[in-house]
Design goal:
The complex is a heterodimer. Chain A is 27% helix and 17% strand. Chain A is α+β, with helices and mostly antiparallel strands. Chain A folds into 2 domains: 1-124, Ubiquitin-like (UB roll); 131-181, no CATH class. In chain A, a hairpin with a 2-residue loop joins β3 and β4 (60-65). Chain B has helices at 11-20, 28-39, 44-54, 58-67, 87-91, 94-105, 147-155, and strands at residues 79-84, 118-123, 134-137, 140-143. In chain B, α3 (44-54) packs across α4 (58-67). The chains are: A alpha+beta, B alpha+beta. Chain A binds chain B through residues 133, 137, 143-150, 159-160, and chain B through 44, 57-60, 62-63, 66-67.
Chain lengths: 192, 158
């Protein structure tokens, strides 16, 4: 294991391993960062943008997805700066418009003081976080489901459709990962 | 349509395409483009074969094949007719041109004629706005063909 490095998170020095992401470093230091598409067993994805943090270097500042940004010595990370909170609220507003009834999203929105959304509410069943697709690929190596289509038509599907009968019937592990709570309830298998 | 399967890229020819790229999984898009060029569309068995040869999971092959507009997962006719619906062509009357073609062929957008000769598609700009409203059959461009012109042009294609 490489030597530990020191970065500052919200003004406090934090010791981290260079193989850790900023998100992991912050969480092990007790700093909470909301995420939706992050899972400890999966590769960083950076899809939900909820974990955005601000990196400052002198006068320069940039927003990065902390789940895919590796810790570096001397990094100045801010997880609750006005810029971060603004970006986080925007993301939550979009998510809230996509899935106004998801408990997980409502909880995150509530925690971050987002009560209303400026966007038109729709009834989606998927936020395209990719947790199920990536779990099926990276952990189970079964590759039953995948993303199909693009843009507004993008969704998760069984490829080919009969993979559901062949493999999924005895697994369904991905369903407990779904942050929307809709995927499992479609099949009446989870307590939602 | 069983008689149509022989028109498809045989698996040997797909193998040859894959070998041309050294069987690299990074060549997935190029391989699919080459098959699309020969077959005019991507059949499920072609995709399955590519997936197993390149060692890419089938869902990932489908993810690529459904993402790019250059790929078609629906059977296509031998010739592709594209009518431009871009702003310039639209202003110059492409909806009327489209109706003309559509009526002549008896199919709507994205559909293929029963004899398998033509597929009809709309696109959003071909970059030759001065010819507008423009229609392309495979690689040939025609500027605002009349109904009579259309009959003559279409009869040239088998």
């Amino acid at each position: 294991m490489a030597d530990n490095i020191t970065l500052t998170i919200d003004g406090h020095p934090v010791s981290a391993d260079p193989s850790q992401t900023v998100l992991d470093a912050a969480r092990s230091a007790g700093v909470a960062i909301p995420t939706l598409c992050h899972h400890k067993d999966l590769l960083p994805y950076g899809g939900c943008r909820l974990c955005l943090v601000e990196l400052r270097q002198g006068k320069r500042s940039q927003l990065v997805a902390s789940c895919g940004y590796y810790a570096k010595a001397g990094l100045e990370v801010h997880t609750r700066s006005p810029r971060v909170l603004r970006a986080r609220k925007l993301v939550l507003e979009v998510l809230l418009a996509l899935m106004p009834y998801s408990e997980e999203i409502r909880r995150l929105a509530h925690e971050n003081e987002v009560t209303e959304t400026r966007y038109q509410r729709t009834m989606h069943y998927c936020v395209l976080c990719g947790l199920c697709v990536r779990y099926c690929d990276e952990v189970k190596h079964t590759n039953c489901i995948g993303f199909v289509g693009r843009g507004v038509e993008r969704n998760v599907a069984w490829v080919p459709p009969d993979r559901y009968d062949q493999t999924c019937r005895t697994c369904f592990e991905c369903m407990s990962l779904c942050p929307t709570g809709v995927f499992p309830s479609n099949f009446g298998l989870a307590e939602v | 349509m069983p008689e149509a399967t022989e028109e498809l890229c045989s698996l040997d020819r797909i193998d040859r395409i894959i070998d041309r790229y050294g069987g690299q999984r990074s060549a997935l898009i190029q391989v699919l483009l080459d098959i699309q060029k020969e077959d005019k569309w991507l059949a499920e068995e072609s995709l399955r074969h590519v997936a197993s040869r390149l060692n890419v999971p089938l869902p990932q092959v489908y993810q690529v094949a459904t993402f790019y507009k250059a790929f078609s997962l629906a059977r296509r006719g031998r010739h592709l007719i594209t009518v431009c619906m871009g702003t310039a062509c639209h202003v110059r009357g492409s909806p009327r041109l489209f109706d003309r073609v559509s009526q002549k062929l008896g199919v709507g957008p994205g559909k293929t004629t029963h004899d398998g000769r033509f597929s009809l598609l709309t696109v959003n700009c071909m970059g030759c706005c001065a010819l507008g409203p423009v229609l392309a059959i495979d690689e040939d461009y025609h500027s605002n063909p009349s109904a009579a012109d259309l009959g003559r042009i279409l009869s040239q294609y088998e």
